[in-house]
Amino acid sequence: MTGRVQSKVALVTGGASGVGLEVVKLLLAEGAKVAFSDINEAAGRQLAAELGERAMFVRHDVSSEEDWTGVIAAVQQRFGVLNVLVNNAGILLAGDMESGRLADFRRLLQINTESVFIGCQQGMAAMKEKGGSIVNMASVSSWLPVEQYAGYSASKAAVAALTRAAALNCRKQGYAVRVNSIHPDGIYTPMMQASLPRGVSKEMVLHDAANNRGGRAYMPERIAQLVLFLASDESSVISGSELRADNSILGMGL
Ligand SMILES: NC(=O)c1ccc[n+]([C@@H]2O[C@H](COP(=O)([O-])OP(=O)(O)OC[C@H]3O[C@@H](n4cnc5c(N)ncnc54)[C@H](O)[C@@H]3O)[C@@H](O)[C@H]2O)c1
């Protein structure tokens, strides 16, 4: 099947790397016009030049409300409308509950959580007349805190709560805007690669799909498929949902 998001206009934050980049490529391949934003301007501009006419890059710090206003206006000006917002940009900082630094926790909340608050508010305002879909990238750590990433886990738990609140708001106000979150386990991206201990290879962490064995990491293309589903009209009755992409790890209590 192709054209699953034909003629829709999407904005993907953190689109210059990892999951965001795969989401941008997949939405383009399925017929959407795609604006992608990132704080990494050099990478974003280079990619936009390679991706062609239906792609557009905007420099964006997702923790800045002012930036958000400018980015959404730029997308509407270029493509006329906004139908899909993927709140994907995020950072990972280590720190457990004893050694974690308050400054790092605040930074995590700013980039991972405040960004989703602002994005949902402005995305809903932009979409409430014509309808749309907002997809928030959370993590399995929303429910199963990773000991050495306490602040990160909390920032993603808040993304789940904001998602439900935004979805409920849309339903109560009668806006045809759906809001859902995706909760992946490991994804083999630059974020994960930077956090792997020395000597741990890609093969050691990747999940072996054919045998349902091996590590807990998935290639970002597989997570992009879930974003595509939630962005498309195929998921028209799904809002306020938390899509667990952890291959049952949560059930195993790991
Ligand atoms: N990699 C994993 O194992 C994993 C697991 C679960 C959830 N996630 C989530 O998936 C999302 C994407 O992560 P990824 O693994 O692709 O990471 P990544 O580091 O490869 O990509 C993140 C992108 O976000 C951008 N970014 C960072 N701060 C920004 C800011 N202030 N404003 C705008 N852009 C900013 C970066 O420049 C980068 O391009 C994140 O929300 C992350 O928390 C990742």
Write the layout of secondary structure elements.
Layout: E1 9-13, H1 18-29, E2 33-38, H2 41-51, E3 55-59, H3 65-79, E4 84-87, H4 102-127, E5 132-137, H5 150-173, E6 177-184, E7 186-187, H6 190-195, H7 202-205, E8 207-208, E9 213-214, E10 217-218, H8 220-231, E11 242-245, H9 249-252
Parallel strand pairs: 1-2, 1-4, 2-3, 4-5, 5-6, 6-11, 7-10
Antiparallel strand pairs: 8-9
Bound molecules: nicotinamide-adenine-dinucleotide.
How would you describe this structure to a colleague?
It is a single chain. The mean pLDDT is 96. The protein has one domain (9-252): NAD(P)-binding Rossmann-like Domain (Rossmann fold). Helix 1 (18-29) packs across helix 8, helix 3 (65-79) runs parallel beside helix 4 (102-127) and helix 4 packs parallel to helix 5 (150-173). It has a 7-stranded parallel beta sheet with strand order 3-2-1-4-5-6-11, sandwiched between helices. The chain has a two-stranded parallel sheet with strand order 7-10. Helix 2 (41-51) links the parallel strand 2 (33-38) and strand 3 (55-59). The termini are far apart. It is built from 9 helices and 11 strands. It is of the alpha/beta class. The radius of gyration is 17 Å and the shape is globular. The site of nicotinamide-adenine-dinucleotide has 28 residues, from helix 1, strand 7 and helix 6.
Order of helices and strands: EHEHEHEHEHEEHHEEEHEH
Spatial strand sequence of the major β-sheet: 3-2-1-4-5-6-11
> What ligands are attached or bound here?
nicotinamide-adenine-dinucleotide
Helical element count? 9
Anisotropy-based shape = globular
Beta-strand percentage range: 15-25%
Please give the CATH architecture: 3-Layer(aba) Sandwich
Structural class: alpha/beta
Number of extended strands: 11
